[in-house]
Amino acid sequence: MLKTLRRIIQEVNAAQDLPEALDIVVHEINEAMGTEACCVYLVDEERGENTLVATEGLNKALIGKVRLKLGEGLIGLVGERAEPINVENASSHPKYVRFPGLGEESLNAFLGVPIIHQRQVLGVLVVFQRESRCFDEAEEAFLVTLSAQLAGTIAHSVAVGAIQDFNRSHGAPLREVILSGITGAPGVAIGTAVVVYPLADLNAVPERRIEIEEIDAEIETLKSALQNARDSIAHLGDNIASAGLPDEERALFDVYLRILNSESLVSEIIQEIRNGQWAQGALKRVTEQHIARFESMDDPYLQERASDFKDLAERVLFHLQAREGGRAPSFPEKTILVGEDVTPASLAEVPEGRLAGVVSARGSTNSHVAILARALGVPTVLGVSGIKVPQLEGEELIVDGYYGQVYRSPSLALRNEFMALMREEQEFDKELEALRDLPGKTLDSYSVGLYVNTGLAPDVGTALSIGAEGVGLYRTEVPFMTRDRFPSEEEQRVIYRQLLQAFSPRPVIMRTLDVGGDKDLPYFPVAEDNPFLGWRGIRVTLDHPEILLVQIRAMLQASVGLDNLQIMFPMVTTVSEVEESLRLLKQAYEETIMEGFAVKMPRIGVMVEVPSAVYQAQVIAKRVDFLSVGSNDLTQYILAVDRNNARVAGLYDSLHPAVLRALMQVVAGAHREGKTVSICGEMAGDPVAVILLLAIGFDTLSMNATRLLRIKWVIRKFTLKRAKQLLEEVLVMDDAIEIRNHMELALEEAGLGGLMRAGR
Ligand code: PEP
Ligand code: MG
User: Which end of the chain has the lower number of beta carbons within 10 A, N or C?
Assistant: First the structure.
């Protein structure tokens, strides 16, 4: 049974689109269970109906036409109860509804199981049998298991596009398809999708249409990549022969060569190119069909050949990509970068001024790609479910970073609506510029320092232009990530000096290297089962004092004559880490002095990012000059919610009462020691949170440059007295949603509703 399950899932995953996947599902289930008919119904939210979208054994002409109100019929009952319904004789059930012409009259046994994804019933999977009987436990378990597995793959696309696709193919008017995700960076963008994809991965190759006049050149590209692949395989075969390996090993290379020389395979790929697909896409389409065929074979030997075929196709792909490697994808004027996993590095590849938006299937609000996008002011939607990324290439998309939605095939009316919203945005930004030189002071004259986070983006210019009081967090990882080795002391000194100089005399808080978690160094890979609970931040640099010492020395040297440097340590969990870091810092300081640099001892801080540091805030504060809360990680660790995982993003909220109480404890601990305390996570740039942060008593807030003027606007509309009152009100509330609603209302009442409407 497990084998059958696996095979069905594999075939479904290899399907080109949802209709094909559903056809496979109904066909395979019917075969595997020996039933007379199998159907899939999907929920059409807009119409409030369950719609027949695939069948094997019943009248296919009624696909898209059989529509039952939610709750109607046995199908409706399965959906309503969200559990399997197993009946001996469907037609004698009180809920049974007959649909003329469908052909289920002669069928008696009925088993329907819901397709559920993230608590939501997306549809129903049904099997029928002529014989009047209840399906047994094993059969029911099989269908339930299959449905749960399919929910992860099919149901995603069901949720977002399938119903529209079916409506469209059954004559209903064309409507835009809405893809839902999580807001990564606020704002709205309209542009053209450019798919970013990892190399040498057949599945990731985007569908790219080519013009008629490009076809010949594309065929030539394919032929030459095939020839290169043949040459390198022949070469490998020769190497193996000279190494004296047995003939069976060599035989594999002969098989590879035979496949590559196969006229029919090559002509199938060429035909796809002639149909307007670029060479990589054509290779992918054809080989995927072959791979699926091998995988569906019963003979285990032939099944194994699927992986050989994939290996071979990826070799050809490698040569295709090597040929095209130098040819950077063309980035249109308004590029919307789309990918399975868009990384901070891929954002950097888009020429300046062309990046309009970002859409990624992975990631969540506090992923570093989201933080970077916010710093760049690029509307971003992450964790988008149901996108077949490769198919989006070249499509017009609207990215709504406020509500975490992406629109495909937008209607003219919708486009105009978003254009108007974008104009409104620009006007709002202009109005905010008037606040540039005004202090971050409440109506009752309570001042809070407004600092910027920098490092991930070339945002120093913006930070200066909006009148930031300094840098509250400089993420030093970037110069480490963009090289193929650790940067030298001198390289680091030059980079740090530029930043200190740009902000002088304003303070700059530099954080020591914080890698691990979702920030990898390409030349220092760390493979761990739980990277966020593993070797991160200070844990790495204390284990490698040579890296930390070089970095601190570079920072100190960079500060000569400017004296605006402050240093802080990330991911501190224990007091001994603080002490060891301070010892190394002192060593670096003394060495720098001995080398003749006239450096001043900087102010030193510790980031509070894990629960243990919250409970020990006071003893940590005693040992340093300041604390800075990294609320992104602190929220992740207090709530045990991976900040990168879209599936649990609904649970991630920094306004959770437990997080608010932790923040209060940290501020109290620091202040008891007479030390200052700042917050530099994304929470500091959230208008809904900022009033509470004032009331809690943070001395400074550090945020993305793009958020600073908005936050200043909010602060200037409130009194500290009102903020404290609001804090008291929310402290008796039990959950984050209640607190968020309460704070949104308070902003609304203060005349800041505009910020709320769009979450801007
Ligand atoms: C944080 O965790 O809140 C923080 C500021 O650090 P980073 O986002 O770089 O992990
Ligand atoms: Mg952090």
Answer: N
Span 407-420, average pLDDT: 87
Residue 657: its H or E element: helix 657-672
At 111 the three-state DSSP class reads: strand
Integer Cα distance of 382 and 339 in angstroms: 10
CA distance linking residue 297 with residue 300, whole number of Å: 7
Count the neighbouring beta carbons within 10 Å of the beta carbon of residue 178.
Answer: 18
Higher local confidence (pLDDT), 155 or 268: 268
Going from the Cα of 517 to the center of ligand 2, the distance in angstroms, rounded, reads 9
The phi, psi pair for 520, rounded to 5°, reads -100, 150
Q: What is the 3-state secondary structure (H, E, C) of 609-649?
A: CCHHHHHCHHHHHHHCCEEEECHHHHHHHHHCCCCCCHHHH
482-513: buried (b, 16+ CB within 10 Å) or exposed (e) per residue?
Answer: eeeebbeeeebbebbbebbeebbebbbbbbbb
Residues tagged active-site: 368, 680
- How many angstroms is it from 570 CA to the middle of ligand 1? 8
Residue range 427-471, pLDDT digits in tens:
888 888 899 999 999 999 999 999 999 986 666 777 788 889 999
Higher pLDDT, 627 or 415: 627
Report which protein residue has its CA nearest ligand 1's atom 3: 630
Q: Determine if ligand 1 sits within 6 Å of the CB of residue 473.
A: yes
At 279, give phi and psi (nearest 5°): -60, -45
- The DSSP call for residue 100 is T
Most confident of 231-240, 426-435, 451-460, 556-565: 556-565
User: How far is the C-alpha of 505 from the C-alpha of 206, rounded, in Å?
Assistant: 49
Residue 194, token pair as written in the block? 């450019």
- pLDDT value for 264: 85
Cα(471)–Cα(506) distance, rounded to whole angstroms?
8
Return the pLDDT at 440: 93
Q: What is the pLDDT of residues 699-752, one digit of tens each?
A: 999 998 889 999 999 999 999 999 999 999 999 999 999 999 999 999 999 988
Q: Kindly state the tokens that stand for 389.
A: 């990324």
Alpha-carbon distance values, 301 to 305, 306, 328 (Å)? 7, 9, 41
Helix, strand, coil shares of the chain, percent, nearest 5, are 50, 15, 30
Looking at the DSSP bridge assignments, the partners of residue 195 are 338
Question: How far is CA 727 from each of CA 142, 568, 655, 739, rounded to the nearest angstrom?
Answer: 52, 29, 11, 10
Q: Give the SS3 label for residue 395.
A: coil
CA atoms of 734 and 554, how far apart (whole Å): 47
CB contact set of 533 (below 8 Å; sequence gap of 6+): none
**Alpha carbon distance 98, 128 (integer Å):** 14
- Which tokens go with 544? 């490698």
631 pocket-lining for ligand 1 (C-beta < 6 Å): yes
* 7-29 mean pLDDT: 83
The C-alpha atoms of residue 16 and residue 6 are separated, in whole angstroms, by: 18
Give the distance (Å) from ligand 1 centre to CA of residue 544. Answer: 21
Q: Per-residue pLDDT tens for 107-143?
A: 999 999 999 987 889 899 999 999 999 999 999 999 9
d(CA 325, CA 218): 14
Strands (E), 476-590: 508-511, 565-569
What pLDDT is recorded for position 246?
58
Alpha-carbon distance 154 to 162, whole Å?
A: 9
Smallest CA-to-CA distance from 700 within 648, 625, 628, 607 is with 628
Q: Is 518 in the pocket of ligand 1 (CB under 6 A)?
A: no
Q: Are 174 and 409 in contact (CB under 8 A)?
A: yes
